[in-house]
Amino acid sequence: MAQSEEARRAMRIACPADEGAFLRDYAATARLRALPKAQLHMHGDAILRPRRICDALAAFNASPEPRLARARAELGAEAAAGSVRAQHLLPLLDRPTLAMPGPLWTPDGRVATCTLRQFDDACPIAGATGWNDDGELWHGMGGSRDMALVVSIAGASARSAEAWAEASEDAVREGIRWVEYAVGGPADDAAGAVRIRAEAWTEWRDGLLALRQHALDAVPEVGIALVVCPSTPSGAYAAAFAAHLRAEPDGRLREAVRGVGQVGASDPAERVEAYAIFRAAGLVAVNVHAGEWTVARPALVAQSRASVRSAVEVAGARRIGHGIIAAGDAELCALLRERNVCLEVCLLSNRALDNCPLGLAHHPLPALLAAGVPCCLATDNAYKLAAPNAMGLVREYQCAAELLGLDARSLAALAAASFEHSLAPAHVKARALADIGAWLNREERAAAGLAAVE
Ligand SMILES: [Zn+2]
Question: Which GO terms describe its molecular function (predicted)?
Answer without folding.
Answer: adenosine deaminase activity; metal ion binding
